[in-house]
Amino acid sequence: MADAGLIADEGEHLTAGWEPDLPAEDSIQRQAILGMAARAAHQAAAVGRPYEDDGVLAMASASDLSLWTSQATILQPLVDVDPFDARTRDFFGDRPHIVFSAWPTPDLRPIGYQPVGHPPLMLRPAGTPPPSVADVDIVEANDAAGVEAYERVFIHGYPAPEFADAPPGSLFHPDTLKASEFGELRYFVGRLAGEPVAVAAAWLSHGLVEVEFVATLPAARGKGFGAAITWAATAGGDGHAVLLGSDDGQPVYERLGYLRLERWTAWAKV
């Protein structure tokens, strides 16, 4: 027979981990998903674009050009698809956007989404000894010219070809350098013979460092830039660091001290 002390009293609230009023520090997962939503809002707010967050679903759109600039972040397990469909249609209209969830979701293909995959959330605990990385030239972009160089490398290195002919700042605007109520975004650029060839960003929010937007130009691959630039972003703030990786990238991140935590779910509407 179960111990009666383990059974909740009638009407007693049992914390699940995704209540809107729960502190971000309740779990690494919660910090990471709130941080991701805040980063999208930061990018949109910096250029006067819309964002909203009701504690259940966060949405932001920094431009109409791509998935990279329009994001929905599911903040609680998605059970009823109809309200989600109505809200995202009302907010994004016909704009392409990506959806991230820390939990498995119902099949969203019937409402027009395509599966992106289940990227692994990886954690590098604070205090983990520094890794050994290649000695390459890395600087922090702290002005419009630096952010423009970052943007060009990401567009051609990731790649994001839809931005190839867009004006500078369409993907990463220099105003996102300014810290906001949402957090702080720092851009790091690796150079080879003086030319920008690798990039990674550190998003500081909700007590975490989130490593984002990592890319290396094809001609510079195999020279240690990927690990070095990821480490620069990882070390760009205090506290635990997290990133959403890929299956191919996991061995690189593990060599930097990252641990596999769980898999998230990503969908896109294009």
Report on the structure:
- This protein is an alpha+beta fold.
- The protein folds into 2 domains: 25-118, no CATH class; 124-262, Aminopeptidase (3-Layer(aba) Sandwich), CATH 3.40.630.30.
- The protein is built from 5 helices and 13 strands.
- It has helices spanning 28-46, 81-92, 144-157, 225-234, 250-255, and strands at residues 51-53, 57-61, 70-74, 97-101, 114-117, 120-124, 137-141, 184-192, 195-205, 208-216, 241-244, 259-263, 265-269.
- The strands form 2 sheets. Strands 7-8-9-10-11-6-12 form a 7-stranded mixed β-sheet, sandwiched between helices.
- Strand 10 (208-216), helix 4 (225-234) and strand 11 (241-244) form a beta-alpha-beta unit.
- The longest helix has 19 residues, at 28-46.
- It is globular and about 65 Å long.
- The model has no long low-confidence stretch (mean pLDDT 95).
Series of H and E elements:
HEEEHEEEEHEEEHEHEE
Low-confidence stretches: none
Shape: globular
Main sheet attributes: strand count, strand direction, barrel closure:
7 strands, mixed
CATH topology of the largest domain: Aminopeptidase
Assembly state:
single chain
- Mean pLDDT, nearest integer? 95
Strand content: 25-35%
Number of domains: 2
Q: Nearest-angstrom radius of gyration?
A: 19 Å
Class from helix and strand fractions: alpha+beta
> What is the name of the CATH class of the largest domain?
Alpha Beta
Topology (SSEs and partners):
Blueprint (H helix, E strand, L loop, with lengths): L27 H19 L4 E3 L3 E5 L8 E5 L6 H12 L4 E5 L12 E4 L2 E5 L12 E5 L2 H14 L26 E9 L2 E11 L2 E9 L8 H10 L6 E4 L5 H6 L3 E5 L1 E5 L1
Parallel strand pairs: 3-4, 10-11
Antiparallel strand pairs: 1-2, 2-3, 4-13, 5-13, 6-11, 6-12, 7-8, 8-9, 9-10
